[in-house]
Specification:
Radius of gyration of chain A: 25 Å
CATH architecture of the largest domain in chain A: 3-Layer(aba) Sandwich
Order of helices and strands of chain A: HHHHHHHHEHEEHEEH
Oligomer: homodimer
Largest sheet of chain A: 5 strands, parallel
Distance between the termini of chain A: 31 Å
CATH superfamily of the largest domain in chain A: Glucose-6-phosphate isomerase like protein, domain 1
CATH class of the largest domain in chain A: Alpha Beta
Number of domains of chain A: 2
Number of helices of chain A: 11
Number of strands of chain A: 5
Helix content of chain A: 55-70%
Structural class of chain A: alpha/beta
Amino acid sequence: MGLYSDLREKLISDYAKLSPQMQKAARYILDHPNEVALRSMRALAGAADVPPSTITRLMGAIGVETWQDFRDHYQSRLLDQPASYAQRARETQSVENDANRDEHLLESIARTEIDNISAAFSPELSSRMIEACGAIENARHVFIVGCGAAYPAAYQFAYAYRLFRDNGILVDGHSGAFGDELRGITRRDLLIAVGAKPYIRDTVQAVRFARDQHCPVIAISDSDVSPIALDAMTKLVVRDHSQSFFQSFTAALSVMQALVALLVARGGQKALQRIAVAEEQLAAFDTYLED
Amino acid sequence: MGLYSDLREKLISDYAKLSPQMQKAARYILDHPNEVALRSMRALAGAADVPPSTITRLMGAIGVETWQDFRDHYQSRLLDQPASYAQRARETQSVENDANRDEHLLESIARTEIDNISAAFSPELSSRMIEACGAIENARHVFIVGCGAAYPAAYQFAYAYRLFRDNGILVDGHSGAFGDELRGITRRDLLIAVGAKPYIRDTVQAVRFARDQHCPVIAISDSDVSPIALDAMTKLVVRDHSQSFFQSFTAALSVMQALVALLVARGGQKALQRIAVAEEQLAAFDTYLED
DNA sequence: CAAAAAATGAAACATTTGTTGCGATTGTTT
DNA sequence: AAACAATCGCAACAAATGTTTCATTTTTTG
């Protein structure tokens, strides 16, 4: 019997030959290797949503005698990891070539991104987000605008929001002239605007138009005094520090996702039901690929 | 009950007060912390040369309810990244207060997002990203595809990329039928595909089409064996853990931004000049608002 | 020294774990 | 349509795990 230096590769190469349920199990194992090392087989089966017997069968299918052998393999893999980590750090320090300059840049990016996210979930911002949720829940229509680099964040919110509420409108100019969707906006509506420097004219004009119609604004921006946030009811000022030329919208996206999570959590059972219905509709349109 | 950030200290401070046999056990645990995380209590007792009951008594002596709690602590210590994540999750669950529930949820979200990003910049993923950059630089055309919740990440890359390279094409179906942009794709091109479960049919078909034309694929996905990543040349598997119903695309977005940053850094002066030109064009179109 | 207190290890206990067997279900072929 | 094989999940099983009990030994104390 051939011994594999890493069972992971064996699992990947044999993946296609496995039965659907075993694929499900293999997939979970590939995605969560540490759980193999730390949790019990039954717990792992439960997490992967397969009966325990499937795991046992998977062992046989990939040529592993017993679960213990499999687990041992993943345990030693877990113990070896810190070693290679340290070794890599040493290598990075010793040689000063082009390749590890890239690695340094990536490490620096990672730190910055984490800082940005941490700042976005400070107590102050958190309470503002909760406040924003209240406003969203009471609005008649919820408009979302964000252009250029801010478009992903706006789209993200609009996409998720529409799965459980049907009063969200993404202002992106895809339906005619930009801002056309805003016609008829009133003080009972709400505009969520995303944007950082350099501020894009369309976004700012959308905000101003909404303000003129006495529509409250929730601004996700890079400054309290940015043209987007200046007159906003709720200001969510997120950091967009970045190692590169472009600003980072990671924190903005994260805040958008957090808003959705909050809304769903507060919406309770009803929100979950709506999501289920939306998913069924998507399935009916054959949007998803069945596993 | 006082919670210690590290039970190790508790073990050391109480060491003198323990009975001889318990000291023997405590000594072994302090010397072999990983064994606590990986082996069974009986096995540990055997290794420490004490009866199992001594371990149970030691638990009570240092104020730990059960062996499971003790083991959990050492397990999360072993995976130093999500250190107190499990504990935090448990706390969030235990407190059923409506007023604080939102804040706890946000804290939990923040923690998870940071974990996701940390994992995305692991040594393994970092080297894959550098590898991906090489492929991007040598490709004739760079196609980017991502649907549904993955669209923001795809858009983000395409938007930034087009500021310094003019061979990027976002496959989003805005120009006629979906996938129409892919016509004429060859082995000299490159497809960057973003997507997580549930996999959207359009994305998967785009990947398959590219593969059929022998076009290499860079996959940003949630699993090594996802239909998007399975046959990909370079697999960037990012975590999408989330406290809410939806998966998080924060890490995917962050990876996209990092790729752009890498490309610009490697592109040197030439890339910066192109960016300057692009900005001037946007200014000419009166896109930005002058301060 | 004797009585009380503490500590110890073996065994018993209920629980959990990994594995196996079997009937039911599914999908394919004749 | 019937027959076959593959796959699946439930339930039973034996082995192990964590905990408790209790009699014995050791230590402390008056």
